[in-house]
Amino acid sequence: MILMILILSWFQTIEAKDSLQNKDLSELYQMARKYMNEDLDSCQIILDSIISKSQETNNLEWEYKARLIQSVVYRRSENSEKQDSILQILSSLSPFVSKELHVFYLFGLGSSQYNKRKYSDAYETYHHAYQLLDSTWNDYKALKMTALSNLALMSHNLMHYSNAIDYNLLSYEIDKDQYSVLNQLGILFKEIGDYSNSELYFNLCVSNKKLSAKQRNSCLYGLYSNLRLQNKIDTANIILEQLLNSEDSCYSSTYFHIIESNFNRYISEGNIERARLPLKEMEIRSFNSQLKKWQVLESKAYLHEKTGKYSEAAQNYLKLYESDYYKTGDRQEKRRILKGILNTQLQGTKLINQWQSFNALQDSIKDQDVIKVLALKERNYNLEIEKRKQLLLKSENETKTATISSQRYMIGFVSFGLLLFASLAYGYWLRKRAAEKRANIEEQMRMLKERESELLEEENQRLLLSNEGLSHRIEKYEQDINSILNESWTINPNGRRSQQTKLGDILAISTSVDKANCLDYLLKDTDHIPRERRSMKNLENDPNFPMDVFIRVHQSHFVNLYNIANIDTTTKAIFMKYTSEVIYASDTYFDTLMTRYNEVRSTEYTQNNSTENPGFQGT
Q1: Contact 446/585 with Cβ under 8 angstroms?
Q2: Is 231 helix (H, G, I), strand (E, B) or coil?
Q3: Using CB atoms within 10 A of its CB, is residue 553 exposed (0-12), middle (13-18) or buried (19+)?
Q4: How far apart are CA 145 and CA 177, in angstroms?
Q5: Of 168, 332, 492, 540, which has the maximum CB count within 10 A?
Q6: What is the pLDDT of residue 585?
Q7: Residue 163 and residue 346: Cα distance in Å, rounded?
Q8: Maximum pairwise Cα distance, the chain
Q9: Is the whole-model pTM more than 0.85?
């Protein structure tokens, strides 16, 4: 049964790969972008198909786009090693693609560095991306906004607050309705203590009518926290009530923090019973986030402390102290946890001492006079015993002191001698070991250099043999092409003598516009256009017609592949060499034309750049 399932899955995989082979690159690219947010495994299969197809046709742009998505897939699957290898491939291909794609690669590299907490490296990468873009605001607007946002985030992480504010202000100049920029400016000014500017930007953000309910709630929460820091408690509570009563608040990513603020508000007002309700709601909403669970644990500890349950509060604070929340938290969070542990333990100790004192007091009330007499007699007896013990111990101590002092001097002298000998022996051993290590390292370096020189020599020999073989193939190809293009083709004009023309001199063959069933020949070095009575279909079916030199691009046009100067893929215009004539290709023949044209251009590039990468197209 298991074998049958494996065979069926294998056949389904083969069918899926065959279906991918029948789709063009643009369709596959759209499918990959769709599956990038749904199914990473399927997305990876589609990307492999795009890469293999683009490499077959030497289409560098499509390969680069596919590898950009591939780096995002590996980042989401937390496979940093494969992501780094993809980024290295993109780095080697970046000089040969458009500026936009190069910038996207830099964004991916910066994101990888950010995930590894290399904020300085990420800042340099994003700055490089920003410098690649033009100086005008209208060009590359979205890319510039992204670059400035990333630069502001890195500056914030590096605690360069003035730089972060400057980058956000530049982004604000590009688009003054940008919600995230206004929100970040409010947060930054709040962190440096400039509450007036912080309140200004939060109000600008809230007043933007284009915001969704979630975005507006996020800005309102920032404004609330700012007002709390300014001790504007009444205004802050009004905004908090507005957030709690919002219909869309429960779907907002900031709603947990809104509930937490409501909890802190009731605690500060001394309303412990009402504080239990937002705490329960915080517990419900913390199921998918470890950080939120830790915040709930801290709130519980605070509530137990306020209600006098110091042992429970101390246990919660100790759990936080042993968790990653304490290890990764900032100084303020660590101080808050340590202060909670100290306060709850001190309060608990005071309660224990009071309980012990209370029990001792209760015991002394019973038959107080008898207890006093017994205690007095016992005290006098113990004092006499202690005096005798002290006299005996004093004489023994004097004898032992003299013995110990003489032994101490002897032990000190012997210890100093042993320590000196051990230090000298250890120093000699360290020096000998260092000399042996140095000799081993020098021997390894010598062997590595010899091995490296041998490998370099072998590689040089291999490259020489490869270059010789490539030169022979190029010479053979040039001879074959020249022999084909120097072949003669007979043109039979109407009522005139036949004309012999080289295939390389013919630029295009077109159906005559003013006369039916006639073909016009566009030649290389003459203004005269010979005309031949013949249909296009008859010419195409002629077994002597060289279809490896000519290709049909329209119902009325054949063009010489080796005389094409350039092709505009937007208008499908074909620019021929040696003439200003422009021929337009139809949709039916355009894909076949581009395939044949890329093959010819790829081969020509290999001839002209035999020592460089043959996969790069110069058009």
Answers
A1: no
A2: coil
A3: buried
A4: 12
A5: 168
A6: 93
A7: 45
A8: 156
A9: no
